[in-house]
Amino acid sequence: MSGTTSTAPTSAPPTPRTGSANPLVAIRNNLRESGIYIAFVVVVLLFAVLTDGVSLSPGNITNIVSQYSYILVLAIGMLIVIVAGHIDLSVGSVVALTGAVSAQLVIGNGQPWWVGVLAALGVGLVIGVWQGFWVAFIGIPAFIVTLAGMLLFRGLTQYVLNNVSLSPFPEQYTTIATGYLNGLFGGYGYDAFTLFIGAFAVVGFVATQLRTRLAKIRYQQVVEAMPLFILKLVLVGLVVMAFAWQLAHSRGLPIVLIILGVLILVYSVVMRSTVFGRQVYAIGGNLSAALLSGVNVRWVNFWIFVNMGFLAAVAGVIFSSRSNTAQPGAGNSFELDAIAAAFIGGAAVTGGVGKVQGAIIGGLLVGVISNGMQLLGVNQSLQSVIKGLVLLLAVAFDVYNKRRGGVR
């Protein structure tokens, strides 16, 4: 027996893996995740210069929030659908139908405003159950089911409205999309509450990003290069606080922005930290492996479409509230804007990849481009061309990354 004692080797703390020792290569390898944030800041600054600062005026920023809020709500649900490997072409028609049902109850039958909201949400859930049943349990591809839904729900909208518009909604209803919170912390010449919420959002974003980065390092996963990671945090923080500063000097914090913020927070947690979220990524990433792992694919797909119906109803309430009317043609092409937001924000065409924050930034990017071109007086047809090219380039970038990584 030897007198020497053996010492168990101590494990060194995990070191970050950025994919390459070359900073330029590391940055290139991480552009898929961080590029959208940089692109957003560049586009915002570009239009600020081209419009002599008008695009960053308090009134215009408030207008962007109000004008594109319902698209961002749809983008959250569409992101989940796309991550699971599906697509939903019916959301624009669902927006129209839920707004029509709400209008008939509130305007046509004199019901309280909240009855219209609850009815719209209920109709959205029923639609989600209907489409989820055909996709999950009958096995019809989501493309076909939602294409049929697009026609079906558009026809029902025309039937509910009898092919005429209904307006106006009561003030309480329109406040959902056009109301503001102002002066909660006292008068300072600006709304301090809005600045507080902006700072809170930045702190939450930084904490979430740090937690995600540490978790990836702990499990030896590839993370962004530290300079790029810090740059992303700084850029997002500056943009959010500049955004909050402008809102604080306008009419304060839009109520619809609070609704959107809650949805972003909830769905970010759901997709990142719950069993359901991990199962959605598993189904989209590798369906066979998900089945072998015991994932109940049918029920997950079912709830994905129930959720999409609910969020489409939320968007329908916001849109009808903002426009103060329900129209048979409401929601046209909304599904295309939501799909574009998800793909531009980093969702993969083949599924399994994408984040809620990315879809929101993608939607805001489209909104800023559209708003900037409107301020510059760009022809409407040319605006569609430019937005189409932006979507095409985003998907091409996704395909390029997969081929570079050896995925065919």
UniProtKB/TrEMBL annotation:
<protein>
    <recommendedName>
        <fullName>Xylose transport system permease protein XylH</fullName>
    </recommendedName>
</protein>
<keyword id="KW-1003">Cell membrane</keyword>
<feature type="transmembrane region" description="Helical">
    <location>
        <begin position="137"/>
        <end position="156"/>
    </location>
</feature>
<keyword id="KW-1133">Transmembrane helix</keyword>
<feature type="transmembrane region" description="Helical">
    <location>
        <begin position="302"/>
        <end position="319"/>
    </location>
</feature>
<comment type="function">
    <text>Part of the binding-protein-dependent transport system for D-xylose. Probably responsible for the translocation of the substrate across the membrane.</text>
</comment>
<keyword id="KW-0812">Transmembrane</keyword>
<feature type="transmembrane region" description="Helical">
    <location>
        <begin position="68"/>
        <end position="87"/>
    </location>
</feature>
<feature type="transmembrane region" description="Helical">
    <location>
        <begin position="36"/>
        <end position="56"/>
    </location>
</feature>
<feature type="transmembrane region" description="Helical">
    <location>
        <begin position="253"/>
        <end position="270"/>
    </location>
</feature>
<keyword id="KW-0762">Sugar transport</keyword>
<keyword id="KW-0997">Cell inner membrane</keyword>
<feature type="transmembrane region" description="Helical">
    <location>
        <begin position="381"/>
        <end position="400"/>
    </location>
</feature>
<feature type="transmembrane region" description="Helical">
    <location>
        <begin position="340"/>
        <end position="369"/>
    </location>
</feature>
<keyword id="KW-0472">Membrane</keyword>
<dbReference type="InterPro" id="IPR001851">
    <property type="entry name" value="ABC_transp_permease"/>
</dbReference>
<feature type="transmembrane region" description="Helical">
    <location>
        <begin position="188"/>
        <end position="207"/>
    </location>
</feature>
<dbReference type="Pfam" id="PF02653">
    <property type="entry name" value="BPD_transp_2"/>
</dbReference>
<feature type="transmembrane region" description="Helical">
    <location>
        <begin position="113"/>
        <end position="130"/>
    </location>
</feature>
<keyword id="KW-0813">Transport</keyword>
<feature type="transmembrane region" description="Helical">
    <location>
        <begin position="228"/>
        <end position="247"/>
    </location>
</feature>
